[in-house]
Structures are given as structure tokens and as C-alpha cells.
Amino acid sequence: MHVPDGFIDAPVSVGAGVLAAAGVAVCLRGARRELDDRTAPLAGLVAAFVFAVQMLNFPVAAGTSGHLLGGALAAILVGPYTGALCVAVVLLVQSLLFADGGLTALGVNVVDMSLVTVVVGWFVFRALIKALAYSKRAVTASAFVAALVSVPVSALAFVGFYAIGGTTDVSLAAVTTAMVGVHVLIGLGEAVITALTVGSVVAVRPDLVAGVRDRLPTLDLRRPAVAAAAPAPRSGA
Amino acid sequence: MSRRALVLVGLLLAVVLAGGASYWASSAPDGLNKVAADQGLDKGAKDHQLDDSPLAAYETDGVGDGRLSGGLAGVVGVAVTFLLVGGLVWGVRRRNASTDATDAPDTATDGRDSDDDREPARP
């Protein structure tokens, strides 16, 4: 969903650039609270993974493909502020190194594909995971829904930019219907990838998943420690 | 699984996906480009200013084999993204508790004051 140059006019592109820069500044501040020596290396991994999976366009309908946006995935794994930074850097690298996504459209792309997907993905996921009893299945299902919802909302954000700064007169109703329709399908792919990835990480290291860290049952975490400590009293006896 | 193992396995997977699996990705236009073409959003579209850059369109200049050309571009992208974000978050991360609050003058060298080191007040 990388917007090329020339879709959105200059004033709105500049406005989106300012909005994106402000969002990134907020994220730089917020990421401090999410990152420490333990979790920082995961952010690089998440960004690299999102970059890689964004290359994997999957077919969604006749003559149409889609790819992961990754905002929901990144937010769930490393937290919303860090997650938005990850996706924003992916978009920057894609535009500068691979000529994917216009230079003047970078602001629009960061707002649509990083900020919007992260905010929507994070709040939907957190609302669901707080409402459900913690289990791996609940985490996977919440990640699925959060990712699914984030993609059409991102498409709507693009339509919003086009409505105020589009360079061609078009039927906004028709564009909205078409964009939401195809991005619900792409959202299903996003949901599958996000659920698989979050499910895999939760299976091996749930303590490293930012979106569930406060929901982990403490008993499960302590049980191995108790088991490991068990031989000690025996050897003392 | 240790954290380091998790990062290594994840990176390996990213390299395999971007460097290998991407060859089989669909080359059909994505949702936005399809809608843009169908609805005429793209009448004002301009070519990317960096279309001539060595990795433009995820193809490596001077590498004839399509699979190798795309794979190399993918691996470069994974490496650059990892290093950029890794460096960025290493810079902004919270230092471990003992050095955090007391080292404010050290972290203020970028001209901002030590406010950044305080946890935000919570109600």
C-alpha cells in the first residue's frame, strides 16, 4: 500500500509529513519506557522481519495482491511506540533504498501504514486480551482480529488523505468501497501472518511479548523456578 | 529459548524470506495500485526520484539472474533495517536502573535537559 509520488498534492503531503514527524517524535519519547537492555535487541529483529515479510506479496483477488503492513504485529511484540518506529524505519528504507513509496509521500505512508496500523492494532489487541482469560489461544485470536481490523482502517486513512489532497477528481464513494473491500481481504492475510508470528513468540517466550507481559499468569512463570529449587532441600536433608 | 537464540532464529527466518521466498511473491499490483488504476487515482502519479538507484524495485543493479538480484536486495534490506532500528533503540533505551536517574548530565549532551530521564508523572 505504498503511496507513490503524485497521488496526493504538495500541501497535504507536507501536512502529512509534519504529522508523521510529530508522531515519530512522540514514539521516540515513548519508546524509552518500553525498551531496556533486555528488550531493545528485539526491536531490530521485529523491523527486519516486517521488512522481509512485506516483500512477500500474496494474491488476494483476480490480478490483485497484498502484503503485510506489520503495525499490529510490531506493536504487540515490542509495544506501540517502538512498533511504530520499527515500521516507520522500514518505510524509510523502502523509499530511499528500493524506490518503493514516493519520497514526497513518505509522510502519508508513515501515517497510514505505521501510526494508524499501530494505534488500531494495539488498542484492539489490548481490549481483547484484557477481556479474555489469558491463554495462548486468546493471544493468537486477539492478534488475528487486531491485525485484520488495522488494514482496512489504514486504507480508510489513505482515502482520507486523498479526499483532501487527491490530485484527480474521482468518486470518493467508489474509491472508499473499493479500498475497504480489497483491504479486508489483505487484512485476512495480515491477520494470519500476525497470529502465526505472535503465536510462535508467545509459545517460546511470552515474557518478551509487550502486549501480554502484564497478563501472564504468575504461577506459570514461577513453577519452573520451584521445580529447579526442589533438589536443594533434598540434598540438605 | 534464550533471547539471543530467538533473535538469531528470527533474523535467519527474515533472511530466508527476503532473500529466498520473495522470489515467489505475487507480482500483481497491490490493493492500492489496483484500486488506483481502476478508479483513476493515479493520473497524477510520478516516477520515483530514485528509480535509478542500485536497488530500485528490489532488484540489484548488475546482477542478471532474477532470483539472485531480488534475493540480494532483500538481504541488504533486512540487514540495513536491523542495523538502523537496532542502533536507534539502543540509543533511546532505558539504561539499567542503577545508571538511569543518576546519570542525567551524561544524557543531556544533545542539548535537551534531563527531563527525558524522568518517568512521566502518573495520577
Written overview of the protein:
The complex is a heterodimer of chains A (237) and B (123). Chain A is an all-alpha fold and 237 residues long. Chain A has one domain: Orthogonal Bundle (Arp2/3 complex 21 kDa subunit ARPC3), CATH 1.10.1760. Chain A has nine helices and two strands. A two-stranded antiparallel ribbon of chain A has the order 1-2. In chain A, a hairpin with a 2-residue loop joins β1 and β2. The longest helix of chain A is centred in the C-terminal third of the chain and has 33 residues. Chain B is mainly alpha-helical and 123 residues long. Chain B has a domain of 66 residues. The longest helix of chain B has 27 residues. Chain B is extended and about 55 Å long. Classes of the chains: A mainly alpha (237), B mainly alpha (123). At the A-B interface, α1, α2, β1, β2 and α4 of A face α1, α2 and α3 of B.
